[in-house]
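User: Predict structure, ligand heme C.
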Amino acid sequence: MAKVLDKALDWLQDRTGLVQPFLHMMLHPVPGKSTWAYVFGTAIMSSFIVQLLTGVALSTMYVPSGGEAWESVKWITEKVPFGAWLRAMHYFGASSMILFVGAHAIRTYLFGSFKFPRELNWISGVFLLFLTVAIGFTGQILRWDQTAVWTVAVGAEQALRAPFIGKTLVRVFLSGDNVNASSLSHFFALHVFIFPAILIGLIAFHVWLVLHHGISEPPTPGKPVNPETYRDEYKELLKKEGEPFWPNAAWRDALFSTIVVLGICACALHFGPPAIENPPDPSLINAEPKPDWYLTWYFALLALVPAPIEDWFILLFPVILVVGMLLPPFISNTGERSARRRPWAVAIVVVIVGSIGALWQEGINEYWTPKFEAKPVPEQIVGTASGPIFDGAKVFNDRGCLYCHMISGHGGKRGPDLTDVGERLTHDQLTIRIVNGGVNMPAYAGNITPKELADVTKFLESRKPHAPLLKSYNAGSK
Ligand code: HEC
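Assistant: Predicted complex:
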């Protein structure tokens, strides 16, 4: 039996020349003390394989046309055997890829693995990171439901405002000045052909570099990288304590990847695919753009940026992000690798992860989007069933004030809570604010009749929840 196998392998090697390189790859020596920290790269690869398999399966059923895309996703989810599971696998596979790309980037940064001679590993990795997110984003849009279309619309609106290149950028991505039926074909082509093709090429390059330089040995404090001697030291290290990748180190990768793929399966079975919401309807403005979880923080950030710098921020932030991530090997590709001797590196990671976490929280709470499904302020809170205050409350509900303002727990959080605004602002201040609007508040001048303005101002003036308390306090102190 073994003989037959040997013969077959010999034949394959003779005719293809591929057996030796494969064995060489699997058995190449790696530093002996490699640890669990090194398993993220293969976790990304396994998740990517899940994406390829489920993605190809989905593409056989998806109809990339503006009119039918939503229907086809619905059909896949509800009618196709295992269709919902396929979509869920594809979604959690994407989530897993992005999660581990992040973890892998943090690990290689903290281990100083981007230093000599592995600068290009880092640089190709940065492009892989952005490409992965771009594939996730274009994929989310293929659902072509109300949320997806609005996410594109909001993205396009943001991009349009970028100085100089905004218009061109939007034209290229949407094939028009607006979201239209052929925009979807663009996102489809990007998601299934263009981005994955570049991704696979870059992965090949990245993995080639990993094999070419060998994986970085776990850093030792006080043992800096010196380009003159590093390669000899590395060779020396491999000679002394090197082990073949398979099976000495690969078992950890194999085990972790298995857990990851099982985890993707478990999440897919438990949570199911992301909901497809209503079909896109351009006449509805009350949809919230809601990107998938890995971009929520970015949308929150865009919503929180102060208006005066917004346009420049939209243009510059992505550039700063890419340049910032490319910088490490240019700034310090020699010296200490251990995080214990690089306090600044640790601080940078903590600040970035902390900021993204905080923004993410903010994005989840969605303080920054008007709440279009807010229920009208009920009568017992209005406090009266007729007269100007009652009419004012109606204006407040009907004119959309409550999408952004909360009164006694009813309404949205985009603007300040107005529960006790009658105690804070005078009649004139209220009128001026409503007429002129403010930062992120529309000006209602010309959009509201004098009577409506008078009524809604009266209503807001009556928002004095502490008045009875004050009255009794004053009465008591007399
Ligand atoms: C799109 C969201 C949005 C809508 C709709 C909206 N507002 Fe505002 N409003 C805001 C924001 C944001 C602020 C804070 C503006 C600032 O500080 O410049 C604000 C501020 C105010 C203030 C000042 C509050 C304070 O504590 O200083 C008042 C009063 C107010 N709005 C009333 C109204 C009324 C009345 C309506 C409806 C006719 C309305 N708003 C509609 C977002 C909105």
